[in-house]
Amino acid sequence: MHLSTSRQSTQRRTLGLCARTASVNDGAHLYLFFKCTPSVQKRYEKTHRSGGLGSLYIDSDMDTNTGSGMRDSSGGSPVQGADFLIDLPVGLYASYSAEHGSESGCYVEYDIKLWDPALKDFSRRIRRESSRSEFPLIAHGKEGVEIAFPLADLQKHKGDKFTFACWEDSSPREYISTTTIEIK
């Protein structure tokens, strides 16, 4: 099984977060790599702050008339038609153990939420993963962030197509990058 993508639109990005590669090589996960400029580690070394990289949106049926509207119940601006919101927070940790001594650094997470049409919000959590987990489905390195999403969580299978949008934190709405992904 492999995955193909076709970019529908590309906008200027202020932080350099954008999907560079996407693949499905085990039949169970969608793997994405995001090039980050500067890297998560460089941002941490410079600021020692937590925050967010951005949000990913998936429109499962590629129909903007289903899924989220232009405004959710809290007044936010999700991508119209999205069924899933995936937040990408960055956190900080500090710990001490007799075995390892003092440790500190940064980590990345993803938090998948499903659109609830009755509540008009992304309120149903599907999965939360951290790079500090024992068997992480997300990691960061010198070049960017790699993520593995279980296809079952995204309700996707071989042959499915969906719209995928990336919106960097603190960027204007017009900087959203949208891609069509087809799982082959």
Describe this structure in words.
The chain has one helix and eleven strands; from the N terminus they run βββαββββββββ. The chain starts with a strand and ends with a strand. The protein has one helix at 40-47; strands at residues 3-9, 18-23, 29-35, 51-59, 84-97, 101-116, 121-130, 138-140, 144-150, 161-168, 177-183. 31% of the residues are buried. The longest helix has 8 residues, at 40-47. The chain has 184 residues and is mostly beta strands. The strands form two sheets. A seven-stranded antiparallel sheet has the order 1-11-10-4-5-6-7. The protein has a four-stranded antiparallel sheet with strand order 2-3-9-8, with no helix packed on it. A hairpin with a 5-residue loop joins strand 2 and strand 3 (29-35). The protein has one domain (3-183). The chain is globular.
Describe the structure using short key phrases:
184 residues; mainly beta; seven-stranded antiparallel sheet; four-stranded antiparallel sheet; 4% helix; 51% strand; disordered N terminus
Quick overview of this protein structure:
This protein is mainly beta and 184 residues long.
For the biggest sheet, the summary is:
7 strands, antiparallel
Beta-strand segment tally: 11
Number of domains: 1
If you average the pLDDT, what whole number results?
Answer: 80
Strand order of the largest sheet: 1-11-10-4-5-6-7
* Gyration radius over CA: 17 Å
Helix content: under 10%
Q: Spans of 5+ residues with little confidence (pLDDT < 50)?
A: 1-17
The general outline is globular
The ordered H/E elements are EEEHEEEEEEEE
The helix count comes to 1
